[in-house]
Write a structure and sequence with these properties.
Blueprint: H1 3-7, E1 33-37, H2 45-54, H3 60-72, E2 75-79, E3 82-87, E4 93-98, E5 102-108, H4 111-116, E6 118-125, E7 131-139, H5 141-189, H6 192-207
Antiparallel strand pairs: 1-2, 2-3, 3-4, 5-6, 6-7
Helix pairs in contact: 2-3
């Protein structure tokens, strides 16, 4: 991950990017990170509440270890072109959705999440069945939803501008073609050679 890409990440909405392992993320030319984070650290509270008492009988230790590994091995990223999700402890599961495919965005918070400032953002795509991608237990989910919605709107406006520009170019080409056709038609009607030939043919006909 380049330093430039990391500098593009808003610090107010995400974890410190220096602490994030984003080596798995490959950005295209012109693509930059707008937001990146792991799940909120307080999302581990339920696992600790259950795991610590059970650790006395060793059952809770796997719960604590698994929860911590899931926390450290989960990354969520928003770029100026789409969304990325990376999960997995032993294996790696990476999902990517471009803004042009996003149909609906919503966020939710449990009572505990509302108290500690974390929640989930659900993303649905056009033609998809239900939620296609979920940012789980992330800090300030409302701001992340707003960021995604803004990027989707920017994408749609950009596409609309490109379509309008293409339509203007096509209209201009059509106008030029019509002007050329009219000019050719006028030249055919005023062709002196054709006029003389027509007059000669008529005179020859009259003499016969």
């Amino acid at each position: 991950m380049s330093n430039t890409a990391l500098q593009d990440t808003p610090k107010r909405d995400s974890a410190d990017t220096a602490d994030l392992d984003l080596e798995w993320l490959t950005l295209e030319d012109g693509e930059s990170i707008q937001w990146a984070s792991t799940p909120h650290k307080y999302s581990l509270v339920p696992a600790f509440i259950i795991g610590i008492p059970l650790s006395l009988v060793l059952i809770g230790i796997p719960i604590l270890v698994t929860s911590y590994l899931q926390y450290t091995n989960t990354n969520y990223v928003v770029t100026n072109r789409g969304l990325y999700s990376k999960r997995g402890i032993l294996s790696r599961d990476v999902q990517q959705i471009g803004f042009e495919k996003i149909q609906n965005i919503s966020y939710s918070q449990s009572a505990l999440g509302s108290s500690f400032g974390y929640g989930s953002v659900d993303v649905s795509t056009a033609g998809g069945s239900g939620v296609e991608l979920k940012f789980r237990s992330i800090p300030d989910p409302a701001s992340v939803q707003e960021l995604i919605a803004r990027e989707v709107d920017n994408r749609e406006q950009s596409n609309g501008t490109e379509e309008a520009d293409t339509s203007d170019v096509l209209d201009e080409i059509l106008h030029e073609l019509q002007a050329i056709r009219q000019e050719l038609a006028d030249n055919d009607g005023n062709d002196p050679v054709g006029g003389e030939q027509h007059s000669s043919d008529r005179t020859a006909s009259e003499e016969r």
